[in-house]
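Homework help board

Subject: predicted structure for assignment chain

Our instructor gave us this sequence and asked us to write out the predicted structure in token form, then describe one feature. I got the tokens but I'm not sure how to describe them. Can anyone check?
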Amino acid sequence: MNVSFIYNPESGSGKITKYIDYIKDVFHKEGHNLKLCPTEKEKDAQKFAEEEVSDVLLVAGGDGTINEVVNGIMKREDRPIIAYIPTGTINDVGTILGIPKNIKRALKLIVNNPLVAEMDVVRINNKYFVYAAATGKFTKASYDIKRVYKKRYGAISYFLRGSKDLFQSYNIPVEITHDEGVWRGVCSLILLLNGPRVAGFRLNLMNSKLNDGVIEARFFKHEPGLLFRMFGFFASGGLYDTKKNKTIRSSKFIIDMPKTFEWNTDGEYAFKGPVKVEVVPKAIKIIVSPKKHKKYFV
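My token output:
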């Protein structure tokens, strides 16, 4: 089996680089050919994923790295299996899939009787995301941080950046076209969720699966008590809800809104303004833990 190892040497303070020889030994002992593909700049992971001829893409990095890989393989007809080692700061994708942060344990799960699942991804304009897209209050915190602060402060750096938005007002007039009709309102925060985590918080999306062909959108209306509602939502794992929030499950959305508001996808800056969103059912094959497969896949 041919395996291309796409890894970000800077992710997680560079800890993956200490395991390169170990990883090579593990795959060689199993009779696999391993090609090293270290990233040096933005979009390298996407380019490797699009161009590498292999059976498996072994990926080590944070949520941004896995987002690039998915955007790369979605340009291909012959999409290789993704095996993921989470080495970033937040690691929402790794947690959703049940992949250990411990590199040796992650490799054991990947190499010993791997369980491959077909997973939805979501197209948003000309990009794709794996688990979440967002715009509005606090959403710049995931990407508007210098790398040196991520290395020094880890997850705390996101909260420090988010505090800048604490008293900033976001008024986003929207028209939402979805499977069941149209909804209009003014929002301060919009979350598009294809998985049970966002920004390091676990969410209890009761009926949602990672291959059910729909996503869940949460619209936080621009009305009094916004911070309390947001705190209640995240503190309760998404269970707290009021009439001042709007929840819509759909296979596609058209969100008409002003061009000035920025979107992030899987925690990375994407673009500004209106979006067309559509689930691509069972678009990728990815290795998951048996426990998460039972919980999050149909």
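Reply (TA_rk): Your tokens look well-formed. For the description, you could write something like this. Residues 2-113 form a domain with the Rossmann fold fold (CATH 3.40.50.10330). That's the kind of observation they're looking for.
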